[in-house]
Amino acid sequence: MNVINGKKIAQNLQASIKLKVDTLDRKPGLAVILVGDDDASEVYIRNKENACKEVGFYLEIINRFDNISQEELLFEIERLNDDDKIDGILVQLPLPKHLDVNLVNETISPKKDVDGFHSENIGKLMQNKPFLHPCTPKGVMLMLESIGVDLVGKNCVVVGASNIVGRPMACELLNAKATVTICNSKTKNLSCKLIQADIVVVAVGIPKMIQSDWIKPGAIVIDVGINRLDNGCLVGDVDFESVRNVAGWIAPVPGGVGPMTIATLLKNTLTAYEARI
Question: Which residues of 9-18 are buried (b: 16+ CB within 10 A; e: fewer)?
């Protein structure tokens, strides 16, 4: 069993981004909108803030109360769309229930959509003409690249069908000429599908759902889930301690996909910057 060190891969990617930024006259700009005071969201924002400082990005954090109206939030996004200092716009999720997430994503200019959620960017990914990739799936692809796996013809199973991870993850793997099955937590005989997989990517939000007897010996297992237990511990959707004895490679939680998501966000911001100059 080999552990895929997402933190180290992310650090290497950020170092390469910093080298590029150091040569630029204007620093790439990222704007992050945080609505409300969700504790987890604030942690994610701090991590993004630290990463931006490390690579030398200009960062603008916009805090708004959770009673902001849809109109006010869209006005804020439109302002950033027109701001020449800003190359990337990110609205931290989740949003309060009275706000329409889909409308928010569609209001962000696709040229500044560094989360990769705008339908134009998702459409380009589906057509294998990607511009700004959804961050977590792209981060997973970079992790697979780092261990030198040839995805052509590999049998891949994605567990989870969200618009943020599962669906674009399947597209990324399809674009790499893998054979892809997409499942969810309710899929019948899920273990039978997983046991045939060369590569498993899991993002369902159910702690330790995936057990060792579901995994083919030597398979690559990428755990995207982040779940906080009652005792405060962070665990993934994969039972790491048991699966690590079966898998050929495994991405842990924490220290796996999480750092890669932030590093890919920075890479998207640099890509958006370069497309504008």
Answer: bbeebbeebe
